[in-house]
Amino acid sequence: MTRRSALLTALVAAVALGVTACSSDTPTEPEETSPTAEEPSPEATEDEVVSITIGALPISETAPLWAAIDAGVFAEHGLDVTVEAIQGGALAMPALVNGDVDFLIGQPYGALRAHLQDLDVRIIANYASSYAEGDDINGVVSAPGSDISRPADLAGKRVAVNSLGAAGDLTISAVVAQDGGDPSTIEFVEVAFPDAKAQLEAGNIDAAWVPQPFLNMIVGAGGTLVTYNYQDTLPGLPTLVIIATGATVNDDPDLVNRVRDAFSAAFAWAADNDDAVRQALVDNLSIPPEGAAALPLPRFDTTLDVQLIQDLADLAAEFGFFESAPDVADIVAQ
Amino acid sequence: MTAVRRTLASAGFTLGLPLLLLLGWAVATRSTTTIYFPTPARVGEAFVATWLDPEILGRDVLPSLGRFAIGVALSIVIGIAAGTVIGSTPWLRALLEPMLEFFRAIPPVVLVPVLMLVLGLGDTMRLAVIVSGSVWPVLLNTVEGVRARDPVLVDTSRSYRVRGALALRYFVLPAASPQIMAGIRLCLSIGLILMVISEMFAASSGLGYQIVFFQRQYMIAEMWSGIVLLGLVGVVVAAVFHVVERRVLHWYHGSREVSRG
Fold it and tell me: I need a surface site. Which of A310, B41, B149, B227 has the fewest CB within 10 A?
């Protein structure tokens, strides 16, 4: 990717992330699925089509969902899917609870948090995961010429995360402690991902936690990769999961199964149709084609590693983010 | 006797509606099931536990109120000083007025990312956000108030050679003060809003930051208690303003009562 196209990608991604979603008023309650469906197989297409609304962030991770809907993968499973753009897990949770969206694609940490506050939410499947080895999809970077080169160096420094009290600052604290630094001396500040590069260059922050494509852009401009904080603490940690309410899980297990199967099929389809996924990035996020082609994407998979979610909850309790670790078995609906 | 009754009636009018609203809120949430609409008792509990905690008071509330006070004070000083110069210099006014309208129309929120880059992530940036929004009502009202001095009084002061600091102290500023005070009243409420907004970016402490933090952590009662605190700050600020305004403009209210007969 040339420098110029990288810049263009950044600008476009910034715009895409900043765009406020005007929630079009489309209340689509899931109709009762026909109880005659014996098995959740593609033959279920014979049944009536169920309309569902899925809340998803307008980010690159949503690309396989957009592409698979256009390719008819969800229709094959008897699902008429509307994607509702959301601006963050916390803001979308009320929409899930009151039924404006039926399923939500959000961070596992947010689901744990919501559960701790007695919100009736369940993780029904994995959506996207970071990589357990190799190049990861997010990490902490320091500015060019900085003396920060390893996690312990972050102690006593000002580190930007997009949102405080979440998986970012939690895993950074853990990785710094692991490397022998004192995480309590880190000054975390909230800086939106698209602003992080400029703030690093202006010297207002010492390091920043950013996802792709910002990670490659900052490293490409001479920044130092300090740590893949997900990979170095909880390798392969899910970044996004599919969330539903406990009521949906209990009252409509057929629908939940059908959604899970449809996502599995969508990801299998997406793996074989990378071009269509890249095209969805161009169409939905207005990323220039060459930028979309080069953008590193996470691993898409519906199989949830429950132990990793439990490890995340335990880590949050260990570092005082949660008062006590919830039992993940109560939150996950398999 | 009547004085006591009047005091009681006035207290009743002041507190009546808030109490009614509180009662309505309690009734509406008495069998609440969702955490998004907590009962007033729950919010009261969260208020005491959160905002009366000395640590949070010292780390979040007082610094926020300090930034609000400094930001508003700067807005008032800059607004009156610049407004007096512009208002009493016709060519300067003609030169600057379109520019002032242009800058006034820019919402300070959209300037935050730029201010963050130029001024860093600290208090200077937050003060700049507050001033960039709340200076306008003071400035423009001062310009207008100074410009609209009574021409007879202008001529009179001139013939008595009342000029410079003397004229400013005893004629120009008093003449403009009703308008200036109206500007300051607006400046206070805008300043409070911008204090909150300035803490929603690149923050790790402050009243506005805490409210957003609680929202994202699904601590909804705590979030509401922060909103209640902001409202209470607004009430106190308005009460203080009222007292100050009565003192500064006593001559004006007096003369208006006289002219009304």
Answer: B41
- CATH topology agreement for domains A3-130+237-330 and A138-233: yes
CA atoms of A206 and A200, how far apart (whole Å): 6
Q: Which residue, B252, B246, B240, is CA-closest to B176?
A: B252
A165 and B121 within 8 Å at the Cβ level: the answer is no
Question: In chain B, what residues touch A118 (CB-CB under 8 Å)?
Answer: 35
B230-258 tens-digit pLDDT:
999 999 999 999 999 988 888 888 888 78
Residues in A closer than 8 angstroms to B117, CB to CB, are 198-199, 202, 204
| Main-chain dihedrals φ then ψ at residue A164, nearest 5 degrees | -80, 155
Residue A284, H or E segment: helix A274-285
Q: What architecture is the A3-130+237-330 domain classified under in CATH? A: 3-Layer(aba) Sandwich (3.40)
Nearest CA in chain B to A119: B35
Q: Which of residues A5 and B146 earns the better pLDDT score?
A: B146
Residue A6 has pLDDT above 60, yes or no: no
Q: Is residue B67 within 8 Å of B130, Cβ to Cβ? A: yes
The answer to ipTM > 0.85 is no
- Residue contact A93–B220, C-beta within 8 A: no
> In this predicted model, what pLDDT tens digit does every residue of A101-116 receive, in sequence order?
999 999 999 899 888 8
Residue with the two structure tokens 């009304």: B260
Please state the domain count of chain B: 1
Contact in structure between A186 and A173 (CB atoms under 8 Å): yes
Which residues of chain A lie closer than 8 angstroms to B202, CB-CB? Answer: 160, 189-191, 199, 204
Q: Nearest CA of chain A to the CA of B102: how many Å?
A: 24
Chain A residues 173-212 within an 8 A CB cutoff of chain B: 187-191, 195, 198-199, 202, 204-205
Cβ separation of B121 and A204 shorter than 8 Å? yes
* Predicted pLDDT at B204: 80
CATH of the domain at B152: 1.10.3720.10
Interface test with A, best of B32, B33, B35 (most A CBs within 10 A): B35
**pLDDT tens-digit readout, A223-256:** 899 999 999 999 999 999 999 998 899 999 899 9
Answer whether residue B91 is part of any domain: yes
A20 touches chain B (CB under 8 A): no
How would residue B154 be classed by pLDDT, with cut points 50, 70 and 90? confident
Residue B174 maps to a domain: yes
Range of the domain at B64: 39-260
CATH of A138-233, one of 3.30.450.190, 3.40.190.10, 3.30.365.10, 3.30.200.20: 3.40.190.10
Which pLDDT value is given to residue A37? 42
Domain ranges of chain A: 3-130+237-330, 138-233
Size of interface A-B (CB pairs under 8 A): 59
pTM for the structure as a whole: 0.77
Q: Examine residue B11 and state whether it is found in any structural domain, yes or no.
A: no
Tell me what pLDDT residue B1 has. 60
Phi/psi at A247 (5° precision)? -65, -45
Distance CA B176, CA B80 (A): 10
| Helix H or strand E segment including B64 | helix B62-88
Q: Is residue B34 part of a domain?
A: no
What's the pLDDT tens digit per position in B215-233? Answer: 888 888 899 999 999 999 9
Q: For residue A245, list its beta bridge partners.
A: A121
